[in-house]
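Memo to structure team: turn this sequence into structure tokens by end of day. - J.P.
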Amino acid sequence: ERGRFFGPGLVRLGLPRDRWLVVRTAKEAGILWAAEEALRSGAVAAVLAALEAPSLVATRRLDLAAREGGS
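Reply from structure team:
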């Protein structure tokens, strides 16, 4: 299913459930906002986001936020 991650697979990759923060939004813009804020905060090591077809501007903003936050 689009937009849903397979929990057991993430656990097998070394991402234990007690370390996840799951954010669900009605629109893709909300996903991008949440991802950008999380990356910029410096409080996360990584963000997984299911996006349909993000624009170049959106991916650039995520890249810059990750660099600012050290993610």
